[in-house]
Design goal:
CATH architecture of the largest domain: Sandwich
Helix content: under 10%
Oligomer: single chain
Number of helices: 0
Structural class: mainly beta
Strand content: 35-45%
Mean pLDDT: 87
CATH class of the largest domain: Mainly Beta
Shape: globular
Low-confidence stretches: 1-5
Length: 168
């Protein structure tokens, strides 16, 4: 194994980081001088040292990042998708385009499950003519499930949310 440590303990040889959206305080940790990683076409939000030397990427400091929404259709269920929202602007609602989800049609009713409280925090929404929905991102209306024998973690709303969208 190599000596590079991309934020986990095992280390890797010749890592490839391509076409990612990575947000974090210390985005990548490790000594990239000891290996030759491929780092290109990524968007890094936060402190990206020691990767700032890789010019084929976009580096954005905290407070200046643009909102981003990622919709990943489910490979096994065409009526389902995973949605990740980076709501850096702190908007109360974020419009999510579900046109890439082939099993959904305009007018369909969907359940939008908050992944941090899957069974309790669910919105029921209707797809508009363009297969879009408006997801509530207000921290005051979102819940975070408490793990057994623990207290609930701090909410990441309204800045970040992960959801599972499923046709009713």
């Amino acid at each position: 194994m190599g000596t590079n440590n991309p934020s986990y303990g095992a280390g890797i040889d010749s890592p490839i980081w391509r076409n990612n959206y990575i947000a974090g305080r210390d985005v990548i940790k490790g000594d990239t001088t000891l290996i030759t990683p491929t780092v290109e076409d990524n968007i890094f939000v936060g402190n990206a040292d020691p990767l700032a030397d890789y010019e084929d990427n976009t580096f954005t400091a905290w407070g200046s990042a643009s909102d981003a929404c990622f919709v990943r259709p489910n490979d096994y269920d065409t009526e389902r998708a995973n949605v990740t929202i980076y709501n850096w602007s702190g908007a109360d609602t974020v419009v999510v385009d579900l046109s890439a989800v082939t099993g959904l049609s305009s007018g369909d009713i969907v359940r939008v499950h908050n992944c941090q409280d899957y069974f309790s925090d669910v919105q029921i929404l209707t797809l508009d003519a363009d297969k879009k929905i408006s997801v509530d991102m207000k921290a005051s209306t979102r819940t975070i499930a408490a793990p057994t024998l623990w207290t609930a973690p701090v909410s990441c709303f309204p800045v970040f949310g992960c959801f599972i969208v499923k046709k009713l």
